[in-house]
Amino acid sequence: MEVFNNTTKIVKDDLEKVITPRSRISIAAASFSIYAYEELKKQLNSIESLRFIFTSPTFVAEKIPKEKREFYIPRLNRERSIYGTEFEVKLRNELTQKAIARECAEWIRNKVTFKSNATNDSMGGFLNVQSDNQEYTYMPLNGFTTVDIGCERGNNIYNMVNKFEAPFSKEYIRLFESIWKDDERLQDVTEEVIEYISAVYQENSPELLYFMTLYNIFSEFLEDISEDVLPNEATGFKDSVIWDKLYNFQRDAALAIINKLEQYNGCILADSVGLGKTFTALAVIKYYENRNKNVLVLCPKKLKDNWMTFRGNLINNPLAKDRLRYDILFHTDLSRERGNSVMGLPLDRINWGNYDLVVIDESHNFRNGGAMSGEDGEKENRYLKLLNKVIRPGVKTKVLMLSATPVNNRFNDLRNQLALAYEGRPELINEKLNTKTDINTIFRQAQKVYNSWSKQPAELRTTESLLKQLDFDFFEVLDSVTIARSRKQIQRYYDTSEIGSFPERKKPISLRPKLTTLDNAINYEQVYEQLMQLNLSIYTPTNYIFPSKLDKYIDMESDQSNRLTQTGREEGIRRLMSINLLKRMDSSVHSFNLTFQRIYTHIKETVDTIDRYQSDNDIGLKDIRDFEDLDLDDQNIDVFNVGKKFKIDISDMDYLSWKRDLIADLEVLELLILMIEDIRPEFDYKLNELVDVIEKKIKNPINPGNKKILIFTAFADTAEYLYENIGYFVKDRFGLESALITGSENKTTIPKFSNDMNTILTCFSPISKDKNVVMPNDKSNIDILIATDCISEGQNLQDCDYCINYDIHWNPVRIIQRFGRVDRIGSKNEVIQLVNFWPDLALDDYINLKNRVEARMRISVMTSTGDDDYINQNENGDLAYRRQQLEKLQNEVVDLEEMTSGISIMDLGLNEFRMDLLAYLKEHPNLDRTPFGIHAVVRGEKPGVIFVLKNTNEELDTRKNRLQPFYLVYISEDGEVINTHMEPKVILDTMRYLSRGKKLPDMEACRIFNKETKDGRNMERISNLLQDVISSIITVHEENELDSFFGEGETSFLTTNISGLDDFELICFMVVI
C-alpha cells in the first residue's frame, strides 16, 4: 500500500506513470471535471476505455418536475462540476474551457461510458486502473476533479488517498463490475454528459447570455416570489379590450404594477410624457375589478372627461365592452364636506373606507405631504383627508400613483407620495423592503447627498456623479415601488415595429411680437413698470385692522408657528394676483384688460362701501374660489380655502389708510386701462402674427396634407378671444373648421355640432381617438383647436403635427406637457413643429421681472404651492437654472426627464429585468442548468467585452455594490472601462439591447471571433481584458473605501480587500465586435 497526502506527493503524478496505452479505467465518484481530464489528457487519450459511476443521482431523469430544493441544489452542483467545481474556478477563469470541453466531449464519445446511481442509497468513491500486467485501486476518491488528484488545494483539512495493489485491488474491481451490471440501481447517462459538456463549447445566442445573467443575479428574488404577488391570469384581465390596446412596454408596466401593489401596497408609475400612463392604469384597474374590488380614481378636474368616458356606456368609449365601473372624484373633492361628486355621489355619504385600490392621477399634486391649517389647526389638507378618510379606515387600500414628474427638487416629494401606500406608518413598509435602514433615514440621507451635489459647479453636477454618491438602499426603495421609463429607453430597448416610432422634432420657432402696431402706443416694459406700482391692498384688509382690535379676529394665544394666519392667507392671495396679472399680460392684451376691469370694479365697490361707511358695515374678503385663473387641483392652494368667509367690521380698521392705498391702485389701473383699451384686434400685433403662422402652415403643411394646428394658452379669456378672431376667419378663407375647449366652455364652427370635449377631440384627432369605431357615421373634421391647459395632460392628439404656445408658461414642464399631446408614440407624422410666442423682452429681463414681482410679494409664512411655486422660490432652484431651462426651450424640444436638474428616477430601477426573467422562465424552465463560463458574440456600437463575475470572497465589504455578489463590467477592446460595476442598470440595459430578438447565435460574428481565438485555444486577449476588469473593480472599491473613511457614516476603510481574479468566478461574458 502507498499513501498520497496530495500536497508533497500527489495522485496525478502517480496516475501519469500507471496509466499506459490500452489501460482500462473504472471510477465511482460524486463528480467528474473536464479540468481533471485536461491534467491527464495525454494518458487518457491513449486508454482503451473508461467507465464512470456517479455515486449520487446525477443527470438521471427527474421523477417529479423539480425535486425538493435540498435534493435539487446539490445535484445541480454535481452536474455543474463537469465543467469545474467551485475549487476549479481559477481554471475556468483562464477562459480555455471551450477548447478543453470540445476535446473532452470527443474523447468521451470514443472511450467513455457514464452511469449514475438512480437511488438515494449511498456509495463510496474509488478509482481502478487495469493494465495488461497490473491492477491498482485509489481510494477514498470523492470526485474525479483537479482537487481530488492533488493539482488544486480545495478546502479540505487533509486530502489523503491510499493506493492498493492486488489482491486488494481485485476486490474493488469485482465490486465495480457487480454494481456496473445492476440496471435497477444504475442508469446510463453518457448522452446527457456529452450534451452537457457540448453546451460549454457550442455557440450561444446573445439572448441566452442575457437571461443567464439575469437568472444568476435575481435567483434569490425568484426563490422569494410567490404566486400571491404575481398577476393571476385566471382573472381573465388579458382577455379584455384594454389589454389588446396596450403596447408591449405598457403590458410590462401593468404586470409589474400589479406585482408591486400586491407586494408593497403601492406603486408610482412615472413613465415619460407621451407613453400612455392612463391606458396602463386602466389595465391594472380592469385586473382588480375582475377580482371584484372597488376602485377609486382621484384626478384633477381638467382630466375628468378622459376618465368619465372610459367608464361610461357611451358610443365614444373605445373600452365600453370592458364595463369598467370605478368611481371618480376630483382632488378638490377631498376638501369639500358636502355637495355631489362628478358622478353624482353625495360626498357626505360616500363609503370612503371601502376602496380596495385608489388610482391618483397627477399624484405630484400631493407631493408636499400632510399639514393642518385653520385658526385652531382644525383643518386637514387634501393629503391628510385622503390618508384618514380613504386609505387608513375600512378595507386594505392599495395606491397607484401616476405622474410624469413625481420629483420636483426634493426626494421628500417622492417619500410623501409613497407614504400614502404605507398609510404614513413607516414600519409597514420597512419590514417589506430589503434595506439596511428605515425608509425615513434612506430619504433623509438621499436628500443630504442631493443637497451637497446640487451645490457643486455645473460641470461636476452630472447624473452619473449623483448616482455614484447615493446609497444602494435608496435604489432598492425606488426599485421596489416605482416604474419609470423614458422615450429613449422605450425606443432603445423595446421592439417598436408595432408601435411606430416617435416623430422627428423640428427646431422650435420662437416669435417675439411687440404689443401693438399703433404709433406711440405702450410697450411691454411700460406696462410692467406700471404693474410694479400696484400694491393690491384690496386683498389684504387685515393689514389695516387696529392692533387693539386684532384679537377679535385672530386668537393671539394659539401657536401660529405651523399655521397660516388670515394675514398670511391674504398675502398669499395678493401675491398670486400680482403674478396672475403678469401672466395675463404675457398671454394677451384682451385677457389683461378683462382682469384689470374686474379688479378695478372690485376696488371701486370697496371704496364706495368705505365712503358710505356706517358703524355696522363690514367688509367681506374676496374668497380665492372666486378666481378662475388659479390651478385649484394643486393641493397646496388648500391653504387659501381656510375657514369661512372672513368679515371685518370697518370700525375696527384704519380705513382711511386703506382707502388711500386703494385709490392709489385705482389711479394706476385707470391709466393702464386707458393705455391698452385702444389695442383692438386689428392692432393686436401678437394676434396678427398668429394668423400669419396659421396661414403659412395651412398653405405649406410640414407633413403631406396635414393642416391640423393645436394652439395652447393658459387663460380661458385668451382662448375665447383667439377663437372669436380666428375660428370664422379660417373657415371663410380656407374652409376649415375650428374648435375651442376651455374646460368651462366649448365651441365649434360646425353648425349643430355636439360641443362636449371628447367629441371635439375625436374629430380633431380621428386616428388616435378611433373615430371610425366610436363615431362611424360622422364626417365632421376639425383642423384648428384652441385650448387651455385643461387638455395639456392625458390626451392623445398625435394626428396633429403643429403645436403653438400662445403664451409661455413659467414652469417649463408645462410647455413640454403641452407639446406631449402631439409628440407621442405611434404618431403617423414624420415631423412635428413647436412654435413659442415669447414676450417682446430679452430673456434676462423677462426672468428678472418675474423675480422682482415674486421678491416684492414674498412672505415667509406660507408653504410652497406646487407647479408655479408662488410662494417658496427656492423650490424651483435658482434663477440661473430657470433661465437655462427657458433658454433651452427656445432652441430645442427637450424631454421632461432632461428638464429636471438631475433627479430622474428613470435611471434607477431594476424591476423590468426581473419581469423579463419571469416571462422567459415560463418558456425556458431549465435555465438553471446553463454552464458557467460560456460566452456569446454579438455585433454592437462599442467593441469590447461585458464580463459577468461573481465574488467568492464572503469576507469582502461590498456595501457599495448594488448587485452583490455579482459584478458587471463593460470594457472596450483597448482596455478602457466603458461602464464600471457601479453602473449595473446601464450594463443590463446594454445587454438587453444587444440581445433583443437574437434567439440564435450570430454565426458570422462567431466565425470571426473563433478565427481570432483559434477556436478558444488562444484566449490571451480576452484573458488580459479580464485582468483589466479586476483591476478596475479593485480601483473603484478602494476609492469608495477612501470616500467612506473621509465621509460621514460607517466606514469600510481597511476592511478585507480584493486580492485579484481568485476572488471571482466567471459566470459568462458577452463579446461585442
Offer a quick outline of the entry.
With 1073 residues, this protein is α/β, with parallel strands linked by helices. 40% of the residues lie in helices and 13% in strands. The protein contains 37 helices and 31 strands.
Protein architecture, described:
Helix content is 40%, strand content 13%. The protein is built from 37 helices and 31 strands. The strands form six sheets. Strands 1-7-6-5-2-3-4-8 form an eight-stranded mixed β-sheet. Strands 17, 18, 21, 22, 23, 24, 25 and 26 form an eight-stranded mixed β-sheet that branches. The two termini are 57 Å apart. 45% of the residues are buried.
Could you outline the blueprint of secondary structure elements for this entry?
Blueprint: E1 2-4, H1 11-18, E2 24-29, H2 34-39, H3 41-44, E3 49-54, H4 69-80, H5 89-92, H6 97-111, E4 112-117, E5 126-130, E6 135-139, E7 161-165, H7 168-180, E8 186-188, H8 190-201, H9 206-217, H10 219-224, H11 241-245, H12 248-264, E9 266-269, H13 277-290, E10 295-299, H14 304-311, E11 327-330, E12 357-361, E13 372-373, E14 379-380, H15 382-391, E15 398-402, H16 411-419, H17 426-430, H18 439-454, H19 463-469, H20 472-481, E16 482-483, H21 487-493, E17 504-505, E18 509-511, H22 524-533, H23 566-587, H24 589-611, E19 618-620, E20 647-649, H25 655-676, H26 685-699, E21 709-712, H27 716-734, E22 738-741, E23 746-748, H28 757-764, H29 771-774, E24 784-787, E25 802-805, H30 812-819, E26 831-837, H31 843-857, H32 879-891, H33 896-899, H34 911-923, E27 934-938, E28 944-951, E29 966-972, E30 977-979, H35 984-995, H36 1003-1013, H37 1020-1046, E31 1064-1072
Parallel strand pairs: 2-3, 3-4, 9-15, 9-16, 10-11, 10-12, 12-15, 17-26, 18-26, 21-24, 21-25, 22-24, 25-26, 27-31
Antiparallel strand pairs: 1-7, 2-5, 4-8, 5-6, 6-7, 13-14, 19-20, 22-23, 28-29, 28-31, 29-30
